[in-house]
Amino acid sequence: MTGILVVGGGITGLTAAIEAAETGYDVYLIEKNPYLGGRVAQLWRYFPKLCPPYCGLEILFKRLKNLPNLKFFTNAEVESISGEPGNFEVSIRINPRFVTDACTACGECVKACPAERPNEFNYGMDKTKAIYLPHEMAFPMKYV
After folding, report:
1. Taking each helix axis from N to C terminus, what angle separates 11-22 and 53-65, rounded to the nearest 10 degrees?
2. In degrees to the nearest 10, what's the CA dihedral of 57, 60, 61, 66?
3. 71: which residues sit within 8 A by CB, 6+ positions away?
4. Residue 117: CB partners within 8 Å, gap ≥ 6?
5. At 136, phi and psi to the nearest 5?
6. Tell me: the pLDDT tens digits for 40-75?
7. Binning pLDDT at 50, 70 and 90, where does residue 95 land?
């Protein structure tokens, strides 16, 4: 497989991956979290436009959805890199979500789940169910 690998699905990684894909390259985006967008989704406003995060992220997600040459992998990590400049081989590990691909984000599983855990998205300041949607703007909109 050839193409461009972008590691990190925050706003910078998303922008780099989208821009490269829009110029015609095959792009592979790897993100360790179960969602794209990074820390920006946690902000009230972000610089330089001081707009809420859903502004910029929504636009990026819409652009991403229209790019068949951009493949993204969430809950994934780079395991190894070998090769030389211009000819790398990368192995990635995709960690399980423990939720099937049939998930429609309906939320019924959350109602049935009795266990709770610290909410990592809110720095552990509150709790969330053991099966959860990372946040209201999560992309992809899938439970973990």
Report:
1. 30
2. 170
3. 26, 27, 28, 29
4. 127, 128, 129, 130, 132
5. -65, -20
6. 877 777 777 777 777 788 889 999 999 999 999 999
7. very high
Amino acid at 59: I
Neighbours of 60 (CB within 10 A): 19
Nearest to 5 by CA among 64, 63, 86: 86
Q: Hunting for tokens 């211009």 — which residue is that?
A: 86
Q: Which residue has the tokens 């691909």?
A: 101
Kindly list the strands in the beta sheet with 70-73, ordered across the sheet, starting from the edge strand earlier in the chain.
4-7, 27-30, 70-73
Class of domain 4-96: alpha beta
Q: What is the Cα–Cα distance from 35 to 138, expressed in whole angstroms?
A: 6
- DSSP assignment of 53-69 equals HHHHHHHHHHHHHT-TT
